[in-house]
């Protein structure tokens, strides 16, 4: 029997277009190695969200695909848009559904969910430059240094650390290039770690060790600026606590298939949740594949497993629909 056809969607109209291309190209190569029929679907960068949606719908219809591997990062890819397109087309797809995706990209709404789940998070304030003049009060409460970030971006795009009012002004101008809402949060001192989740299982913890004080976009994507240690050199209790917090954050948003949760481990040992990445980097050297490899799952096997999970969800949904149809007929 022929294997199902896979369309790997990458690129897209976000600031993470180039990063998405690297993820998508890696996935295409991995699935090809595993014997899957694969077609790359590259969404141009210079499109509006509506135009990108029309492009994606037409491309997926032409490809006659069976399952969509979503390798898009940032808005359009991680905010539920492409997921809803797949839902409307009744296509199986990898990763979280529209609602969980929207929550994951929205740093404010996800932060609220974490707090409701009893997870520790940094102290934070939402700032809307067009409506809010309470910046001084917010900074007085948070104290310097303060982390400044747009509420709906990934890959540390638009994220800065400000240690005084002059830097704060520049950081807010930078964040405002990407979002009308800006998140201000306390700078949590401790060890930066990340936990991948595949299926319902947390992966080994990865410690992130930037050469500078702050893990920003430059530190993340400039070779040699950051070291990664997997498994993280934490004691057994701290490892369990971090993995448990990672899973609870994943579950609090209703994520499925996979995610990567970023945290800070305070000196006291308390894990503080920063955010959930519903579609983390997926190159062979990205952090989720590093953790998966540490757990004995190769990059190619990881990509294949995500496809199989997507197909399993679609198969279960089809079986449920068939049973409901039979029941309606019987009644």
Could you characterize the architecture of this molecule?
- The protein has helices at 17-33, 49-63, 81-88, 98-105, 107-116, 135-142, 165-176, 217-221, 236-252, 287-294, 299-330; strands spanning 6-11, 38-43, 67-70, 92-93, 124-127, 146-150, 160-162, 182-186, 191-198, 201-202, 206-210, 226-229, 258-265, 271-277.
- It is globular.
- The protein has three domains: 6-95 and 298-326, Rossmann fold (3-Layer(aba) Sandwich), CATH 3.40.50; 103-120 and 188-278, ATP-grasp fold, B domain (D-amino Acid Aminotransferase, Chain A, domain 1, 2-Layer Sandwich), CATH 3.30.470.20; 124-186, ATP-grasp fold, A domain (Dna Ligase, domain 1, 2-Layer Sandwich).
- It has 331 residues and is an alpha+beta fold.
- It starts with 5 loop residues before the first strand and ends with a helix.
- Residues 316-331 have low confidence and may be disordered.
- The strands form three sheets. Strands 9, 10, 11, 12, 13 and 14 form a six-stranded antiparallel β-sheet that branches.
- The protein contains eleven helices and 14 strands.
- Helix content is 42%, strand content 21%.
Number of strands: 14
User: How would you describe the shape?
Assistant: globular
Could you name the CATH class of the largest domain? Answer: Alpha Beta
Q: Treating each run of at least 4 consecutive H or I residues as one helix, how many helices?
A: 11
Low-pLDDT residue intervals, each spanning 5 or more residues: 316-331
Largest beta-sheet characterization: 6 strands, antiparallel
CA gyration radius, whole angstroms: 20 Å
What is the beta-strand fraction?
15-25%
Q: What integer is the average pLDDT?
A: 87
Label the structural class.
Answer: alpha+beta
CATH topology of the largest domain: Rossmann fold
